[in-house]
Amino acid sequence: MNRPILLDLFCGAGGAAMGYHRAGFDVVGVDINPQPHYPFEFHQADALTFPLDGFDAIHASPPCQPFTRGQALRRGKVSEKPDLVASTRDRLNGGPPWVIENVPGAPLLNPVVLCGSMFGLAVRRHRLFESPIFLTQPCECRHREQGRPVGVYHKMGDQVKGINHKNGQIVYGGRTAASVEEGGAAMGIDWMTWPELRESIPPAYTEFVGARLLAALRADGAKVQPVYDDPPLDITEDFPADEATAWAREARP
Questions:
Q1: DSSP string spanning 117-186?
Q2: Spatial separation of the C-alpha atoms in residues 99 and 55, rounded to whole Å
Q3: By CB distance 3.0 to 4.6 Å, which of 30, 98, 171, 203 could disulfide with 58?
Q4: Angle, vertex CA 172, rays to CA 71 and CA 121, nearest 5
Q5: Quick one: how far is CA 33 from the chain centroid?
């Protein structure tokens, strides 16, 4: 039985790719930089010029640095990397079903926000997902149930500080992972280095989104063989957090 093929643009080390693979896609990654730990077929190339023909769906994660301005502003400078969201969207429009992922603050249109607490993960790592197909959350964020989160950014072992805006005092919230192993476990990733983890998203996010992409392909009468033979998935329900990943796993071929 054929699996549909998804093109993973700006792929990094493959966090998004693994989720789509688990959802039922064969994945081909493209990135301008070498990605020695990418777990699937990989091409080092420009994501904005790589041919799009022959793919059943496309995921793109344009560089997020233009929108993660907090630390840059504190250092007195702003990222000089260009905003590639609009040019990526323009290139994908009119093709197969697509998804663009980026950080809060990025200029995505009517995005859905996913959070690690929705999937029983130790990270929060809010990310936006835009698509011409209908996407929804599996549930609301469950920060209270999640407890103190583990951060996967900056340096390992940092205590995360914040400001209480009511009184101006420094407060301590989460912390960054003490090791690559702890960071990987918090993200659901076991093949990346620390710098790769910092730039990645949990596979659970795209396993969830990938199931919706598969349903859209089938509803459109796509020319690929269905990955499974039951009726298209209805993922519009408000799934409990501990079931949000489980239902997607049960739908795998």
A1: GGGT-S----EEEE-SS----SS---HHHH-SPEE-SSSTTPEEEEE-TTT--EEEEEEE-SSHHHHHHH
A2: 13
A3: 98
A4: 80
A5: 19
- State pLDDT tens for residues 99-150: 999 999 999 999 999 999 999 999 999 999 999 999 999 999 999 999 989 9
Q: For 14, which DSSP code?
A: S
pLDDT at 22 over 60: yes
Domain ranges of the chain: 5-146+199-250
Q: Please give the structure tokens belonging to residue 66.
A: 């233009």
- Backbone phi, then psi, for 28, in 5-degree steps? -125, 125
> Is residue 121 within 8 Å of residue 186, measured between CB atoms?
yes
Q: Is the pTM of this model over 0.85?
A: no
Residue 248 in 3-state DSSP? helix
